[in-house]
Amino acid sequence: MTEVHFYHDAADLAGVACHLTAKAFNAGRRVTVLLPDDTLARQLDQMLWVRQPGSFLPHVGLHSPLAAETPITLGTSVPDTGWTQDDVLINLCDAVPPDFAQFKMIVEVVGQDDRQRGPARARWKHYAAAGLPPQAHNVKGEGR
Fold first, then answer.
1. What pLDDT score does 50 carry?
2. I want to staple 15 with a disulfide (CB 3.0 to 4.6 A). Which of 49, 98, 121, 144 is the partner?
3. Strand partners, 75
4. Share of the chain above pLDDT 90, in %
5. E strands of 54-124, at which residues?
6. Is the dihedral of CA 125, 126, 131, 132 positive or negative?
């Protein structure tokens, strides 16, 4: 069954996504990050290159020919061919990701803005109605 985790009150969406991506990668997991726009995607891409000195996290775009072979993928839309892995999906978008139930874990990152909280509540209800009770984690004040 898919686990669902909501990390809410994130002051820095890309920072929290980077931290959670690194944590999952270091635990041997494959990670896909779905982002709402190219600006945030570029920001996260840069963070994954320089998270800590000498600690590159291997990643490519979701639409890259190397996506199926790379442990971390990022993108703003699902490829026409579908997801390239089924382990961890980190979602920073307002909508429930398509085919979310194929993943072992869904991680929702929600900011402090009310414009993000409303759609996040709808996603929470959607997962709960699908029989996947979400777990909440408050990241406010954690510096990421």
1. 80
2. 144
3. 34
4. 85
5. 59-61, 72-75, 88-91, 105-111
6. negative
| Every domain of the chain and the residues it spans | 3-138
**Cα 3 to Cα 23: distance, rounded to the nearest angstrom:** 16
Strands (E), 2-134: 3-10, 31-34, 59-61, 72-75, 88-91, 105-111
What is d(CA 79, CA 136) in angstroms, rounded to the nearest whole number?
29
Q: What is the pLDDT of residues 50-87, one digit of tens each?
A: 866 667 899 999 999 999 999 999 999 988 888 989 99
Q: How many CB atoms neighbour CB 75 within 10 A? A: 19
What is the tally of helices (H) and strands (E) in the chain?
3, 7
Q: Of how many residues is the chain composed?
A: 144
Q: What is the CATH number of domain 3-138?
A: 3.40.50.10110
Q: Which residue has the tokens 């709402």?
A: 36
